[in-house]
Write a structure and sequence with these properties.
Elements (H helix, E strand, L loop, with lengths): L3 E4 L5 H12 L3 E6 L2 H15 L3 E5 L5 H9 L10 E2 L1
Parallel strand pairs: 1-2, 1-4, 2-3
Helix pairs in contact: 1-2
Length: about 80
């Protein structure tokens, strides 16, 4: 596996385009957004098209507890992030 890239706002716009570019490079992705259903769509697309590992992180950054709960649920493999966008 290459790098692990954490991308905020991944379901649309610049975040989605960044996810596509990093996936094309073979990087593993943690994609973040508020809507889990939209993240799952992106996850399936990127995994199928680029054969990369993708982890969904659905939470609202305004809710501190939700942020920590989600991030603390990551398996150890995903805890070292090389790039944060």
């Amino acid at each position: 596996m290459h790098r692990i890239v954490f991308i905020t706002g991944a379901p649309s716009g610049i975040g989605k385009e960044c996810a596509e570019q990093f996936a094309q490079n073979g990087d593993a992705l943690i994609i973040h957004g508020r809507r889990h259903d939209r993240l799952l769509e992106i996850k399936k697309l990127l995994e199928k098209k680029y054969k990369v590992d993708v982890l969904c992180a659905a939470f609202d950054v305004q809710h501190r507890e939700a942020v920590f709960e989600c991030i603390n649920s990551f398996r150890r493999h995903w805890t070292f992030v090389h790039i944060l966008l």
